[in-house]
Specification:
By secondary structure, this protein is mostly helical. The chain has nine helices and no strands.
């Protein structure tokens, strides 16, 4: 087998690359120490990141336990009654669950608050809920709220058993 000049040059280049890689990989080389230092910094950064994520998860769990307001559509029914200081406003004829959530966002949580609204607040609520003017008065939300606040208006299940 004979070697030509190109093959010899390629062989020398490969030999030089192998020699350089060998020096870099040796236990005494500065590149190995730098690589090890970089690995130690990386491990510390990963450990710190994991600790921050764990602390954030603990904080999220704590906030969820302390949370007083329901989240999302349909949860108002799940917290009906006096849970968290709120009444089930959807028991008033004419108030849907979506409207109850909008009322809660507007600061109305109890039947007594609905019973005490004035004409100006009524107009504001009708605009906020997208109702025609006079709807709250026509459906007598205030009267129904007074009855529910006093416990005079029977619930759905009391009608079925009585």
């Amino acid at each position: 087998m004979s070697f030509n000049l190109n093959m010899l040059a390629l062989l020398l280049v490969m030999l030089a690359i192998g020699w350089i890689l060998g020096l870099m990989m040796s236990g005494r080389g500065k590149y190995r120490r730098l690589w090890q230092d970089e690995q130690a910094v990386h491990r510390a950064a990963v450990k710190d990141r994991d600790a921050r994520i764990e602390a954030a998860n603990v904080r999220i769990a704590e906030l969820e336990r302390q949370q007083a307001a329901p989240i999302g559509a349909g949860t108002a029914t799940a917290v009906s009654g006096a849970v968290h200081g709120r009444d089930d406003l959807s028991r008033i004829k004419g108030i849907s669950q979506a409207q109850e959530l909008a009322l809660n966002e507007a600061g109305y949580h109890r039947f007594g608050q609905i019973a005490a609204i004035n004409a100006e607040q009524e107009a504001t609520l009708e605009a906020r809920l997208g109702l025609a003017p006079g709807t709250i008065g026509r459906e007598d939300w205030r009267g129904q709220a007074v009855e529910l606040d006093r416990g005079e208006k029977p619930g759905l299940f009391s009608r079925l058993t009585g």
